[in-house]
Amino acid sequence: MKKLWIALLSVALTLTFAMPVCAADVRFSGSYVAQGYYDNNRANLKDGGASVTNVWQRLRVQTDFKVQEGLMLTTKFDAMEKIWGAARSTTATGTNSTGNNQEAEIIKFEHVYVTANLWGGILRAGYQQQSVWGTAFGDNGDQTYGPRVRYDYIVGPWTFLVLWDKLEGTNYYAPGGPSANIGNNAYQVDSSGDKYVGAFWYTWANKPGPFLGLSNSGQVGFLIQYYPQSYQAGPNNVSGYTGLTDATGYKRAIYLFNPFFKAQFGPLYTEGEVIYWTGKWQDPEGGSSAAKMDLNGWSAYLSGTYDFAPMYAGLTFVFVSGDDAGTTDKYEAGAAGGTDFNPCLMLFNYDLNRWNGNQGNINYFSGPGITNAVMVQVFVGIKPVPKLDLKASFTMAQADKDGAATGWQSKDYGNELDITATYKIYDNLSYMIGFAYLWAGDYFKGTDSSKGVDNDYLLTHKLTLTF
User: What mean pLDDT value characterizes the chain?
Assistant: First the structure.
């Protein structure tokens, strides 16, 4: 009888503790991606260019726990993000470990944050997506995440935003506390990075407009960001402080101005974005001999698509300023997205670059956005049936500036033809096959005038499941 009462009590306690959990509203969402490549001449070499063949995959799962009305906890993780058949590794190197040797086979939690409706707005606090604003052109949200406190306040069609980001990897903390940082090169008290952002956007829908009298809808916004960073900056006369050397120790203060627009005028859709950043790129202090450098870089994006169903056609322009190697007191490279903005199957394609390595051994990505590029793309497509999308594009691309080394041979990246066919097997499952051909330019010669550059072609297919 005693055992029966103990069993009943155990069941009662289990039900008691489980009731709040069962009462919570839990929603799952995410995606699974598997993409295969055959890249015929990844190095763009005239003789001996090796081909690359692989398939990469990623499972991404987001869970939203609705604790009560107006209060929610969100988590997101990536799992089995790797190349099929590659050597197993339980070590993930960085937020986007390369696919060639160190796959992130472990479950990697990227987001955990609280969302609360407070003071007439929405507060989000915790690890969440960073570097997302406006159009996909300036976005690195697919791989960039970290500590953030964000507050949105909505007034009719207006939304106002303020946020603070803490950047990872700045080595500002030691387990032993601040005193443990003294004399420790790996953890400097004043090595840190933050972002302070203020922004707004205005949304409208179904309003008559001056453009051919067509009704229109869209969104326009503006963002201002202050971005202070410290790199082992501070006094070098403190006893035992060895972090600051003659060649290191500076601060960085960046101001970023970022307007964008999206607009639909009847069958015409247009969007654009400008990113301008200025300030101090390197401001040495405390006796450091690091070079003093100002910052003055910008980028621009404009795209338009005209829909005359079942066909559509459009034009895209991209400019990202490059750094002039001749101006050692100024850094002019622009800032633009790379992880979320993939205009071609080969050129400036972040996924291909990540899993297959640099195109022609030249990296036109920088932390991790596109840099030093001018691109014009024309595209046309047709949807013969609602579930099938056939698209072709032709892209002309070159660098804004020569490469960093003296004697760079050319600014020409080359021209690329892309052809894709995407079929929606289910509403949440699509399959894409694609072909790309790159007429490689002499930019890939680097400084070697005798280097033989040859063309490259790519075959790819991609299965995408969303839920």
Answer: 82
- Give residue 179's pLDDT band: very low, low, confident or very high (50, 70, 90): low
Strands 373-382 and 293-308: unpaired
Q: Report how far residue 165's alpha carbon sits from residue 366's, in angstroms, rounded to the nearest whole number.
A: 20
Can you tell me the mean pLDDT for 442-461?
89
Measured CA to CA, the distance from residue 181 to residue 173 in angstroms comes to 7
Q: Which two tokens stand for residue 42?
A: 């990844």
Contacts of 147 (CB under 8 A, 6+ apart): 126, 127, 165, 166, 168
Other beta carbons within 10 Å of 342:
19
Asked whether the beta carbons of 311 and 335 are under 8 A apart, the reply is: no
pTM score of the predicted model:
0.85
Contact 459, 38 (CB under 8 A): yes
Rounded CA gap, 82 and 45, in Å?
27
Contact indicator for 148, 128 with CB cutoff of 8 Å: yes
CA 434-54-412 angle, 5° bins: 60
Contact by Cβ (8 Å): 110, 140: no
Q: For residues 331 and 292, what is the distance between their CA atoms, to the nearest angstrom? A: 10
Give the span between the Cα atoms of 126 and 65, in whole angstroms: 15
- For residue 379, give Cα distances in angstroms to 4, 13, 26, 304, 396: 74, 63, 42, 10, 12
40 close to 458: Cβ distance less than 8 angstroms: yes
Q: Which residue has the higher pLDDT, 144 or 310?
A: 310
99 burial (CB, 10 Å; 0-12 / 13-18 / 19+) is: buried
Is residue 326 within 8 A of residue 317, CB to CB? The reply is no
Calpha distance 93→60 (Å, rounded): 18
